[in-house]
Write a structure and sequence with these properties.
The complex is a heterodimer. Chain A is built from nine helices and two strands, in the order H-H-H-H-E-E-H-H-H-H-H. Chain A is mainly α. A two-stranded antiparallel ribbon of chain A has the order 1-2. In chain A, 17% of the residues are buried. The chains are: A mainly alpha, B alpha/beta. The complex binds adenosine-5'-diphosphate and magnesium ion.
């Protein structure tokens, strides 16, 4: 399928999902059913989907204060005889709504990245008139992520292999302060390395004629065909229907 | 004699499911110098990383009679000095001194002893004059020597080299071979530089697709042209 179609669909899906009011439980179910149907059609492994979702869970914690801070009525729960906490029912519902939307959005994004090669996504962004410089930055960030990950892994490996102790020595491992300093130095040298590495890459780009304007991606400029267009239209229509339904059922 | 390295049925698979070592069995006597040869991707580096617990696979590994298990990692790392293929990965301090001092200092040795160790190690690799330089700005050959000094300063019993001659010019390469020749430690040298092994290692282990396909006197293995050809070494 054309990457542009997938990108637009995912964006529309996420936007409308998040515009759906809180507590529109049936609408959430429809959204999720829709997404799961696409997941099944795309044949990506469910285990991959859920593993990656798990990685994003910690961000939900940010919404937890809602449970305690939203509008009354409050319900008190006594943990110990003297310790009571007040929960707001509305806050709890808000939190659950946010958590659900968050999970569905994340999975939609995962579905997109799992079925679309990254360069194709960049290409789609370009076609959708995202500024070229921005596309170039996203592209470079993606590349450096891997370079830096490799550098860090190799440095850590080299350090662990030299972190030994003598059975005779009572204070091996060095002082905490010293270890902190070594780690700091390593981080510093990582920083220098990534700069020098990017310098080398930049020099290589210059020598191949780079003049500050990012090259357009090399993907073939296939255009969206009629069926894809209809499919996209139908998908967005469904999303809007679910959303309207959510407006009526939400609180 | 009691072997200094014993590897029993070692297998290792990378997290992405790529099997890199299959059922490796190997014994090394103290003082032996062994060439680990094999084409790219044979699993040489992976095997080297196992020798001091940077990677851990299935099977058993003993260094100086100590089993390679988590509790023994610190002690075993002081026995096995691993010299990485790319010296840039090994050198991360602002000065040569600090890099070479890292190992002994980490072991908890006294400052004065650490200094002695650093001087000895740098002398052994003929880099004493570079003690205050920034390792990142040395030549590849010089970096390689400093990288070797960083493990020599720990006074290990076993030295493990991953592609020691990669990226060296002929002169730096010759000097490195002379240096390795003089070092008394037990040595494992992973490389596809056959000439290096011919000069340095009486025994050769031939690795291919994660398995040991030959293990014996270097002369015998290097005399077997079909074997070398089959394994992409000539
Ligand atoms: N980090 C890694 N993740 C997955 N596979 C790896 C990794 N590193 C090496 N490999 C694979 O393991 C095999 C052995 O690699 P390696 O030990 O580096 O071989 P050699 O050092 O003999 O060239 C190769 O097929 C390589 O592709
Ligand atoms: Mg290698």
């Amino acid at each position: 399928m054309h990457p542009g179609v997938k990108l637009v669909f995912t964006l529309v899906f996420i936007i409308f999902l998040n515009l759906t009011p809180a507590q529109a439980w049936p609408a959430y179910i429809f959204f999720y059913t829709f997404l799961l149907a696409l997941v099944l059609v795309s044949r990506i492994q469910l285990s991959i989907l859920f593993q990656r979702t798990l990685l994003a869970t910690p961000f939900i914690l940010a919404a937890i204060p809602l449970i305690f801070s939203a509008n009354p009525p409050y319900y008190s729960i006594s943990l110990l005889p003297d310790v009571e906490i007040y929960l707001s029912l509305e806050g709890l519902q808000k939190f659950v709504s946010i958590a659900i939307k968050f999970f569905i959005s994340i999975q939609a994004a995962i579905l997109l990245t799992a079925t679309t090669r990254f360069p194709d996504l960049l290409f789609a962004m370009e076609r959708l008139k995202v500024p070229k410089l921005m596309v170039a930055i996203i592209g470079l960030a993606w590349r450096f992520l891997f370079v830096i990950r490799d550098v860090v892994l190799r440095m850590i490996r080299a350090r662990t292999s030299r972190s030994s102790s003598l059975s005779s020595s009572s204070h091996s491992g060095g002082s905490l302060w010293w270890r902190a300093r070594v780690t700091g130095v390593m981080a510093g040298s990582l920083f220098l390395r990534s700069i020098e590495c990017s310098d080398r890459i930049y020099a290589a780009m210059l020598s191949r004629g780079y003049v500050g304007v990012p090259l357009p991606s090399f993907s073939k400029t296939i255009s969206i065909n009629r069926n894809e267009f209809l499919g996209l239209g139908f998908g967005i229509f469904l999303i809007v229907m679910i959303w309207i339904f959510g407006l009526f059922t939400g609180g | 004699m009691v072997p200094i390295i014993v590897i029993q049925n070692l297998s290792f698979t990378y997290p992405d499911g790529k099997p890199a070592l299959r059922d490796i069995n190997l014994q090394v006597q103290p003082g032996e110098k062994i060439g680990i040869v094999g084409p790219n991707g044979a699993g040489k580096s992976t095997l080297m990383y196992h020798l001091n617990g940077v990677f851990t696979g299935q099977g058993k590994l003993f260094i100086s009679g100590l089993e390679l298990i988590k509790n023994n990692f610190p002690h075993i790392r002081s026995l096995v000095g691993l010299v990485f293929q790319n010296p840039d990965d090994q050198l991360f301090s602002p000065t040569v001194f600090e890099d070479v001092a890292y190992g002994p200092y980490y072991q908890g040795l006294e400052q004065s002893i650490v200094k002695d160790r650093v001087q000895q190690a740098l002398k052994a690799v003929q880099m004493s004059d570079f003690i205050d330089r920034n390792p990142y700005h040395l030549s590849t050959g010089e970096k390689k020597r400093v990288a070797i000094a960083t493990v020599l300063s720990m006074q290990p019993e076993i030295l493990v080299f991953d592609e020691p001659t990669a990226g060296l010019d002929p002169r730096a390469r010759r000097e490195l071979i002379e240096l390795l020749f003089e070092l008394p430690q037990t040595m494992l040298i992973a490389t596809h530089d056959l000439a290096l092994i011919k000069q340095l290692a009486p025994r050769t282990v031939l690795l291919s697709k994660g398995r040991i396909v030959a293990d014996g006197p270097t002369n015998a293995i290097f005399g077997n042209e079909t074997l070398l050809k089959e394994n992409g070494l000539i």
